[in-house]
Amino acid sequence: YWSSNKLITVLSVFNVLLVGFQGWLGSIVVSTNLVAWIVTVHMLIALAILAITITAYHIAKTIGRPRLHKKGIVYVMTFIALALSVFQITIGTEVREKIDSVSSHLLGGYRETWVQQAGDIFANHRNLALLVLIVNIMLYALIRKGFYRHSIHQQLMSFNFLIIMLQIVTGIVLSYWALPPFAQAAHIVLASLIFGVQFYLLLNLYRSANVQGVRV
Ligand code: HEM
Q1: Domain regions of the chain by residue span
Q2: What is the 32 CA–ligand 1 centroid distance (Å)?
């Protein structure tokens, strides 16, 4: 891609370096036995790697495509939904940090009490999920109004909505069934997917990767 768009190569090289750094940081997370803030930084860097990968992919897919001119409110709402997801993911990672400290304090025992002992940070995380849901319902309505059914935008938004519902279900399972490991894994994978899909939706508002069903 060097001849058609240098940014793709630059982003990809930077991403490889960032993955190396993330690997090193991961070893610190393990060797320091999950020092609280490093887990959050590690999660945010994982999201940055995802964002850079998606950006490079999107640029490559949309070379020569026209810019879309949509109402500002759609951009603003998508950005708010994305920023809120990043915030919720950060709070979620803090819940995890708190739960790790409770668990080591209790020497790994009384697992069914860990979530309850996570206190305010858990309550904030659970309540914020309601705001995430409301903002995404509003965004869904806007996308349905502004784009055709078969457009990539509506498809991404439907997928986004589905994952948010699953995320809330796994969150409830975590809270009321003493953190089953499968739900822990699903909860973090779904969180990354929500971020990825919303970020890709934002990029597609500027230039659509799929011209089917799109009004320029
Ligand atoms: C709607 C959006 C939500 C997002 C984006 C989200 C995201 C996250 C993330 C990124 C973590 C950290 C996971 C880890 O580091 O292993 C987390 C942890 C957690 N979340 Fe959520 N969450 C959401 C909703 C909920 C809801 C509705 C509940 C409960 C009713 C919930 C309960 C929990 C619990 C208990 C943990 C700690 C899990 C552990 O220690 O492994 N989450 N969340």
Answers
A1: 1-64, 69-216
A2: 23
Give the whole-angstrom CA distance, residue 26 versus residue 178: 26
Atom of ligand 1 nearest to the CA of 93: 12
> What pLDDT digit, counting tens, does each position of 23-82 carry?
999 888 777 765 778 888 999 999 999 999 999 999 999 988 888 887 789 999 999 999
Given a cut of 90, whether residue 211 has pLDDT beyond it is no
The residue whose CA is least distant from atom 27 of ligand 1 is: 168
In contact, 37 and 31? CB cutoff 8 Å: no
Nearest to 58 by CA among 18, 99, 23, 11: 11
Q: Measured in angstroms, how far is the CA atom of residue 39 from the centroid of ligand 1?
A: 14
**Rounded distance between C-alpha atoms, residue 60 and residue 44, angstroms:** 24
- Residue 189 Cα to ligand 1 midpoint, Å, equals 11
Atom 32 in ligand 1: residue holding the nearest Cα: 171
Q: Of all protein residues, whose CA lies closest to atom 15 belonging to ligand 1?
A: 93
Distance CA 32, CA 46 (A): 19
Ordered DSSP codes for 89-153: HHHHHHHHHHHHHHHHHTTT--GGGHHHHTTHHHHHHHHHHHHHHHHHHHHHHHHHHHS-TTSHH
